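ARCHIVE CARD
SHELF: 3
SLOT: left
DATA:
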Amino acid sequence: MKSTPSLQQLITGAQNDREIPTKRNRKKEEEITTSPTSDTVFCDGRRHASLYSLNSTCTESGSFGKADVTGEIEFAIRYVFKACILEICIKGCKNLAYGEDKKKKCNPYVKVYLLPGKSPRSKRKTAVKKNTVDPEFNETLKYKIEYSQLGSRQLQISVWHAGALKYRVFLGEVVIPLAAWDFEDYSMQLFNWYQLKPKLEKSEDDLIQYSGELLVSARLSVPAQHKNFQFEGKKDQGAPNCQLQVMIFGAKNLPLLRPAGMLNSFVKGCLILPDQAEVKRESPVLKKEACPQWRHLFVFDGVTPAQLQQSCLHLTVWDQATFSSSDHFLGGAKLGAKESFGSTDLASPSVLQWQEVLHRPNTWMDFTLVLHSNKENFKS
């Protein structure tokens, strides 16, 4: 988190940014935000196949089977703070079940998802090892992700058998909640063996799907005569009415609804106050952009810190419908006291980020919010 320029400077700079960029600059920016960290994986100083070639080796289509889950997998996890890269180094497996028991055949590979994302963009795979139940992979799979987002993510590391004619058999998985992972502890970066477990059966309705990220900056603007005001507890202690200001910078990794990948997108903001009153704002539509940069300011007037302490801000991203009356929901995120998706965890990122805004008045706070696809959880 860091301070940003004053509101007037921010708005002036945003207007200039819309006038200056060339087509080449916009194309370059899009490539930076949408391209993977690297198309080559490394481990132990050796170069391996590209992530995309690995993905093309083992597709998700075809028929699937099950085997009795046995064996273990060895891997290490680390986070490169300077580059904002999460690395998962898959070393190998042992004592796997046969993917085709009658033939005593097993062609294992490892597949990784950074949950809750289950899109192709979130998927990483190793190469397939032929005819072995004790494969050695020695491959590192990478994700470009901000450190602040790791607390809400899980690593799903699963092992599969690749049979003929796109026949796939699940051999076991390990799920690692990253909120409990200490990336600054060197011992947590070492290789360890993990017991493979059967797949957890969950209905599709229970899955909160990843739908990209929204870049915002927020601050509680307090009048100059109260510049030394410090919010404590649930009482305003004489504070006047304030402004909640939310700058919507842009979004990345949004679902692509059209073959060309271009969206006519806009953002809705809904501030839900303690008395259930709703204050709504909406950004302009930005047309034909896969990675939109709105740089639009939402202003909520006449609010107090005590009110905001019990309020929640819903931010939702939409694609403007061309021929129908209903716009397409792309994803949503929440900031505030009422935590997302039914949880009331006071240590959640949503609550902690909201408290930062309230307890540091007149200071811009930058956030990268994970967008989720469950429309029913949001008001717009």
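SLOT: right
DATA:
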Amino acid sequence: MGKKSNLDTLILKLNSSSLNDNKDKAPQPTNDAQPATTTPSSNPPATSEPDSTKGAASQPVVGVPPQQDAFPIWSTGLFECFDDIPTLLITFFAPCVTFGQIAERVDRGQISCGLYAMLHAGILYFTGCGCLLSAYYRIKMSQIYKLPNDPVFNILVHLICEPCALCQEYRELQARGFNMQLGVGWRNQTPEIQQTGGLMVAPKVPGGMTR
């Protein structure tokens, strides 16, 4: 019985020693074999985004026609004489009076309205060509105020219908801020008109495309 117990203890020791050897021989996991784990950072990496404002400014707008310079026209039509009946009657029976008012304002008071009227009446009486003098001032007025300046057309307008042309010029100066009443003259105009000569008031321009 004593030998059998000693034999059992020896067998148990051998089994335990073999198990320990197997554990030592088993491959141990290394750091390289472990899967790499990454922890998300609190601040994500900044990504470069295109500047939309710069891109919009650099790219041309598609579908918009280029702006064109507006072509100035007279503030009233040539045959709108009946809008001012008193001026029409004065111009029809005494065109020299209306011409004197126009010429005085165009020349900025260099000569009085009465002298201009007498000059026009004298040319009209002796030659019958007072319309040529008034046509000259229409051309001069067109150049000053950037109005349609066709010398041939301006002369023909005064040759064919001088009262209509004078009334149109009279209304144009009135629309630009001049006081066109008889007896006012250049000296009694407002300081703004005397300084600018009516250039501060822009004439009408043809309207663009409307829907």
